[in-house]
Amino acid sequence: MLEGKVALVTGAGRGIGREIALTLAGYGADVIVNYNGSQVQAEAAAAEIEAMGRKAAAVQCSVAEDEACGKMIEDMLARFGHIDILVNNAGITRDNLVVKISEADFDSVIATNLKGTFHTIKHMYRAFLKQRSGRIINIASVSGILGNAGQANYAASKAGIIGLTKSAARELAGRNVTVNAIAPGYVDTDMTQAMSEEARGRILSQIPLKRVGNPKDIAEAAAFLASDKASYITGQVLSIDGGMAM
Description:
With 246 residues, the protein is an alpha/beta fold.
């Protein structure tokens, strides 16, 4: 389904990003595994991709840093020849009530989650225009649709990603480049596994399907949006949340 394609997945050392990287490789793509601090995990993911017979690279870069992001994309375009799929997954949280969120914690979440997504799109923009094809998949969140108490900075960053997705989709549609977002709900990752049983119970009570999602649920949707099967879909937000935002 993705043979001959090259994908760049940000924040792919662990969690949802890692699952997306492995799933895209499973469908035939070569994958650039971007990470910031998860070097060991990212290199392990790249090795697993290579074991599938695909090309891979583990590349350190904080997407919050514009210049570094541009250099990463320039280097990877030179190394792989082209990048066809961009998955913006890198993200952080600094949760607290609005009155307690520091300026630094607000800015750091916006810088990584929202500006990081902007940086990669900006630096891939001309390459996609030249190729006259491309797929951009931005990982938003149910928090960006519904809001979430104690996550004003995170929710704002993810709502911003949705607006950025729609704007970029309108700009790039004429060059056969689609831009879509996935809004996961509560997914079984390191973060949710660390929650108390009481907290998990509260979460489950909000989910009509009465279960937490799996990273594979998100990864398979990303693979679909990256494929030719989704060539007439752009500017959309796909909620994968067990029905939370219906």
